[in-house]
């Protein structure tokens, strides 16, 4: 019991870290950019020097992006089709562009949020103090 309480007390604040991660900023300081390209996570924050190399985001951001985009666009597609009955080519074009744009917008933000979650919960070596 005592060990689990000690582990919980060393956790960092989750919601501020998730907000910073979603905005693609360092979960520690909120100032430095977490990503150095579209999806490449920096090894360290250029502002506070927080080590971010321990992240293990892997396929999580892609799965979450597919989940969110699918759950938003599928009902919207159905509603638009039933209400206005647009031509199939128009419907396809609008929803293809919308799906791609939403996916490209969400993917780096969800990656930042996953890395920030791991940082806040001291997962995968983030809790090790060297």
Automatic annotation (TrEMBL):
InterPro entries: DUF983 (IPR009325). Keywords: Membrane, Transmembrane, Transmembrane helix. It comes from the Bacteria. The chain crosses the membrane at residues 62-83, 89-107. Pfam families: DUF983 (PF06170). This is Uncharacterized conserved protein, DUF983 family.
